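Final report, closing paragraph on structural work. Over the funding period we assembled a curated collection of sequence-structure pairs, and we close with a single example.
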Amino acid sequence: MTHAYATLTVLKTRLSISATADDTTLRLLLEAVSRVVDKWCRRHFCVWSATRYEDGTGGRLFLSSDLLSVTTLKTDEDGNGVYENTFTSADYLPYPLNGYPKLAIDLSHDSGYSHFAAGVRKGVEIAGIWGYGDGDSATPYSPAGVTATVADGTSTSVTVSAAGDLAAGHTILVESEQMYITAISGTTLTVVRAQNGTLGAAHTAKAVSIYQYPDAIREATLMTAARLWRRKDSAFATIIGGPEMGPTEIWQGLDPDVKLLMGPFVNTLRGFA
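Its predicted structure, as stored:
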């Protein structure tokens, strides 16, 4: 996964940087900090399409990763690796009912099944859309108000009708393909294609959407990236100062305010998968 929870444009504004010489380094810093955020929160805020497996259980299936929507749910009753039972959407209820992401799946009262391959290791196969997203929607992206054109599924140069609000660090959705923007020049995007389990394809003047993340997670990413960038000016020293003020110890690790921002998003219920 290549993605960032904040954009290069906003980070440069925070740092009062107008030159472009350090753009690549700053973007890579945003990506690295975003991985720290993932690890600290024990979840991914990006959205990816994948088929994942869970151990079979009774009436409630607790998920090992955040889930936004189910494409197919199948079970392997006898543990032979063949998922012979395909559940319909009427057979199960993702929980919480009125919120995102989904953390568990219950059998519905009208289901023809009494369990999710109970007792079978890797007994449940779920194809779907995974990740925390913005915490509000199964489709955590907003229209960019522009269109994109690219002739094939592999080219890293994509032409847009206007740059609009697009920025390096954005993950965008064009039809069913996710792309990660690494640079912008005029109306040409440099992108990493086919991200997060999606497939590269040709697109002709198709609408672009921008993936959204919680405001607090974006702010935590920006604060940490800005702080790390400034620390280079002190050669990453842990103690600075002069004869007038005496030595001052610099805070190491994640800033307490960053931890405060990320606290409500820390996954305490399960492992990080």
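The CA atoms of residues 29 and 228 lie 8 Å apart. The chain has four helices and 14 strands. We thank the funder for supporting this effort.
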